[in-house]
Amino acid sequence: NTKGEYVGNTGMTWTTTSLTEYLWSKLSSSNDIVERASLTAPPYSNFYISDEGWIYATVIQVDKDQVCKLNTSGTNVFPPAVYGRSYRELTDEKTWASKQYASNFVDITVDEKGIVYALDSELGNVFLYDQEGNNLAFFGSKGTYRGRFQKPVAIGLLKDGSVVVLDNQTGFVTTFKPTEFCNLMKEGTYQ
């Protein structure tokens, strides 16, 4: 509050239990139940508070709802969805072994019109979402070439609309200037 006193939590993440987990807990011993009770809700990795009072946040260790727009009561007003991207890559053609890759959001920022920029450290992508949480585009990738990242950790916006990304591994700050197409795409979402 205005006096600097603690008033409570808002926008907490929630744990979920599948039907199988619920039934298993009913058949488990008391030690197993104590172990299950120690599960914690997935943590936020970062947040941004807009001038209008919206809290934009990124959540890690989840398969969906990784990007949130919280109102003053802490309710996520973005639709339930899988944000970012996920894919499987073949690693051995003889055994058909593969590896799963999925987005892991670590930072978020929002421009003056409500366009959300979310930084994915796992795949090295910057995702753009409109004011309703719809994916507009993504750019960037992992690598050692110009415009790619090894370990992106922070994102910001410059006054001219450029996106800047800090790479923790290299120490570089990479700047992306928006194209005319990107500006038109974002303008199409303004209300």
SSE blueprint:
Layout (H helix, E strand, L loop, with lengths): L18 H9 L2 H8 L6 E6 L5 E5 L7 E4 L15 E7 L4 E6 L2 E6 L5 E5 L4 E5 L5 E5 L12 E6 L5 E5 L5 E4 L3 H8 L4
Strand order of the largest sheet: 6-7-8-9
> Strand fraction band?
25-35%
C-alpha termini separation: 32 Å
As a whole number of angstroms, the C-alpha radius of gyration is 20 Å
Helix content: 10-25%
Low-confidence stretches: none
Order of secondary-structure elements: HHEEEEEEEEEEEEH
Biggest sheet statistics? 4 strands, antiparallel
Mean pLDDT: 86
Structural class estimated from helices and strands: mainly beta
**Please, how many helices?**
3
Task: Tell me the overall shape.
Answer: globular
Counting DSSP E segments of at least 2 residues, the number of strands comes to 12
Can you describe this structure?
With 191 residues, this protein is mainly β. The strands form four sheets. A four-stranded antiparallel β-sheet has the order 6-7-8-9, with no helix packed on it. Strands 1-2-3 form a three-stranded antiparallel β-sheet, with no helix packed on it. The chain is globular.
Entry keywords:
191 residues, mainly beta, 4-stranded antiparallel β-sheet, 3-stranded antiparallel β-sheet, 12 strands, 34% strand
Could you provide a short overview of the structure?
This protein has helices spanning 19-27, 30-37, 180-187, and strands spanning 44-49, 55-59, 67-70, 86-92, 97-102, 105-110, 116-120, 125-129, 135-139, 152-157, 163-167, 173-176. The chain is mainly beta and 191 residues long.
